[in-house]
Write a structure and sequence with these properties.
The chain is of the alpha+beta class. The protein is built from seven helices and 29 strands. The radius of gyration is 31 Å and the shape is elongated.
Length: about 500
């Protein structure tokens, strides 16, 4: 009872100090709210979204202030910021031996362990290659596809490809021609000096046919020329592929994509079949039957320019400018059977060895990787051998009579011609080409190597193997020799250069 009286009797009364402090806090709160409203009103209004023309002009201005990269076209400058990341991902290391250690602790042992993982039948894409699951957020993937497609359209505009531009190829029949690459009627002193040196040399190749071509892109990373075993030559010009018959010396077919927003970036004949594969600038691969001129099927998997392809029986391997290698089995409905990551830079060369045991891949960051014959690889697999170069490895080709020997040529920063033996991991020979090496070709009939070169020579050199002594110089082109192909009998070489000319060089015994 006493406790209840005490509780009801006690009552607090606010002091003057407490009342004053409460008034001060209320005043501060009102002042703070007023200041916040004023600051919100003073914020700048949201700027309206930029139009596509404004965005495009802004990108063009930024590209104009960037210095060009030696050995790489303008279309790959957007990838320069990824160069440091690519070097960290694939450090320059000493080449590893091909033999697997007993404990499986070396690089090859780990690669073989990884390649035994079964591959899902679901379709891989470059957008989901680095993710642990096959399919991620659909909206994110669609957004990335739209961005990459818009990027490819901008690249086409920089290349100057007009709507439905097919290009053309025709034989030059004039002795004195004023065509851009010919100019026989207006030779300069340097051209006269080159022709005199050309006549004095004991040549094993002589020009047989000269072509005028339009629509050939002066792009170091494209591979738009291939000669089939049926003596049909395919040359991609813009959005069309022109088929030339090596027996009749006539252009027999012309396949046009009828597209205004993409061009053909690579072509590859399937051995023993009249099937031609070509990769486009939007990441699509199309298989065509040349006899019926019909599309057999379309192969997906890339989200960027498919710049190079190589056949291994029914397996088609393709490389893109995002650094991915995809393997397609054209006999299966789920054609995508494997994917590997070359680097974060563009894949510019890709070729299976003559014995089909190894796949060589070169990229624009100077890496030459040798991959095992396992099309069902995953992106976690690492190459058997990694050989660093000081420039892009675009010129690369296996020796046809020695399956473990490969030749590589460097770009503007390298200018070296190397011969490698991947079984013994030895550099058989190295020579200074004194100019950018754009393409390489072995001559099995004479055991020689032909190099198509760029600035400053813009010529073709013939090198004796294995000492790599320069036996002859072919100075017919005035622009860098971007593409070369060998005839099925090994007696003719087709070359296409940036000066809009092409030659058929006939082998002549001396």
């Amino acid at each position: 009872m006493e406790w209840k009286l005490e509780r009801s009797a006690t009552r607090k009364v606010k002091t003057d100090e407490a009342v004053l402090w409460e008034k001060i806090m209320k005043a501060l709160g009102s002042d703070l709210g007023r200041i916040r409203k004023q600051s919100v009103q003073m914020l700048p209004k949201e700027t309206p979204a930029k139009t596509y023309s404004q965005f495009k002009s802004c990108i063009v201005k930024k590209l104009a202030f960037q210095s060009p990269v030696a050995s790489s076209p303008i279309t790959t400058r957007w990838q320069q910021r990824c160069r440091n990341q690519a070097e960290q991902t694939f450090p320059e290391c000493r080449p590893t031996e091909l033999s697997t250690s007993e404990d499986g602790s070396d690089l090859i042992g780990s690669a073989e362990k990884i390649t035994t993982i079964p591959v899902s039948s679901k379709v891989f894409t470059e957008a989901t290659a680095n993710e642990p699951t096959i399919f991620t957020n659909t909206t994110h993937v669609q957004t990335k596809q739209k961005c990459l497609q818009q990027m490819s359209i901008n690249e086409e505009n920089r290349h100057g490809i007009s709507e439905k531009f097919q290009g053309s190829i025709r034989i030059c029949e004039k002795h004195e021609c004023l065509w851009k690459g010919c100019k026989n009627g207006t030779k300069s002193e340097s051209d006269a000096h080159d022709s005199s040196a050309h006549n004095k040399s004991s040549l094993s190749l002589e020009p047989e046919i000269r072509f005028h071509i339009t629509g050939l892109q002066n792009d170091y990373y494209l591979n738009v020329l291939d000669w089939s075993h049926e003596n049909l030559l395919a040359l991609a010009l813009g959005s069309a592929v022109h088929i030339w018959n090596g027996e009749t010396n006539q252009t027999i077919e012309s396949i046009d994509l009828c597209s205004t927003s993409k061009y053909i970036a690579s072509v590859a004949w399937m051995r023993g079949h009249g099937c031609l594969a070509f990769g486009t600038s939007d990441g699509e691969i199309q298989l065509w039957d040349i006899e019926t001129q019909k599309t057999l099927r379309n192969l997906s998997g890339h989200l960027s320019v498919v710049g190079v392809m190589s056949w291994n029986d029914y397996i088609l391997s393709s490389g893109s400018r995002l650094g991915y290698i995809c393997h397609h089995d054209i006999r299966s409905a789920q054609h995508h059977i494997g994917m590997a990551r070359q680097s974060r830079q563009s894949v510019c060369s890709l070729q299976w060895s003559p014995d089909s045991r190894h796949l060589a891949c070169g990229s624009s960051d100077g890496l030459l990787n040798i991959w095992p014959n396992d099309p069902g690889v995953t992106i976690r697999c690492r190459p058997l051998i990694s050989i660093p170069h000081s420039s892009a490895v675009k010129a690369m080709m296996w020796c046809p009579w020695q399956s473990t020997v490969i030749a590589t040529g460097g770009g503007m920063k390298d200018k070296l011609l190397h011969i490698w033996n991947i079984s013994s991991m030895e550099i058989l020979e190295t020579v200074d080409a004194q100019s950018q090496v754009c393409s390489l070709l072995w001559l099995p009939n004479t055991k020689e190597l032909v190099s198509g070169q760029g600035h400053p020579g813009n010529k073709m050199n013939i090198w004796k193997y294995p000492m790599l002594s320069n036996s002859a110089e072919l100075c017919g082109h005035k622009g860098r020799v971007l593409h070369m192909a060998l005839s099925p009998d090994g007696n003719s070489v087709f070359s296409a250069a940036a000066d809009e000319t092409a030659y058929v060089w006939k082998y002549r015994k001396i």
